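Note to self: keep these together.
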Amino acid sequence: MSGSPRDLLVLSRIPGVGSNRLRALVTHFGTASAVAGASPRQLTTVGGIEKKTALAITSFFRGSAAQAAERFADDQLARCAALGGRVMTVWDREYPSRLKGIYDPPPFLFFRGTFEERDNSSIAIVGTRHPSPYGIRMTERFSDGLARLGITIVSGLARGIDTAAHSASLRARNRTIAVIGSGLDVMYPFENRGLAERIIGQGAVMSEFPLGTKPDAANFPRRNRIVSGMSLGTLVVETGVDGGAMITATMAVEQGREVFAVPSAVAPGKTSGTNVLIRDGKAKLTESVDDILVELAPHLSSILPERASLKPAMESDLTLFERRLVDALGDTPAHIDALVARTGFAPSEALVHLRSLEFKGVVKQMPGKVFVVL
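Structure:
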């Protein structure tokens, strides 16, 4: 099954043929060009294509509308290329595999930057456009912690929490992906144009909307399903009960993805949405990166080293202080500061014992002074 970006863009201009019908047609006939040559009777054998739509499709390819659609497709591809971007289809190998598995994946994506295999082990971080200082701190803490483990951060390039999440990941020299609700040439918000260019250098900026599409309010719920759909889980930091992040969380649940929420102060207002998610059992109360790793560890094996219990013979080779550090580490990665707090060791003392454990092959140090048991 295949469909070139140009052919798919042409099909997308047929009235009544949305994303789901477009995918169904190409999947059934094998190529977009085969759809153009199908008869009304053949078209109605495709699920969701009734007689009226079948006649509209055949009429489209027999009239001048098809030529107009071809001009549209050529213009879109040319404008995208001029930006240094590309268009990928849902049938391309590069298309994010987790996004491909949702109910309604976009048939094509406009993007600038690159996608890598490890982006399939990503976490979305979302929240209000008007965060409190606490919300910014929590966002930066989680984004930095996940980034230092090599986990790609996905968000929506909006003001507030999204901006903080992308920025913290970039500072950690990690990959981050921004999903926007407008065309690639209509960057929104305007002040994040510079941030978008930095993201392109360490990840990708992507959209399902054609070039020239304005950031209309109706676009953002569709954008949100992509944010959650291409991620293992979604972390909500701060949001109102009616905020866009609540829509993202709901979509994540519907997609069978994990939802995490940082608790907020017990007070009504713009940040109480996370507490509602926790109260209603839609999100896991999340206080640290470890809370996320515990839930998603089986899916992160390609990034995080596997950890197993120590063999009895190995345990006998450890000093009392080394055993205390191993017990403090447990089954999840931990920063040196957390280990110091758990053991009561001075930082210099903890590092001496951790280096000894590294030499013995018991622990491994990851970027950012994070340690894991091997």
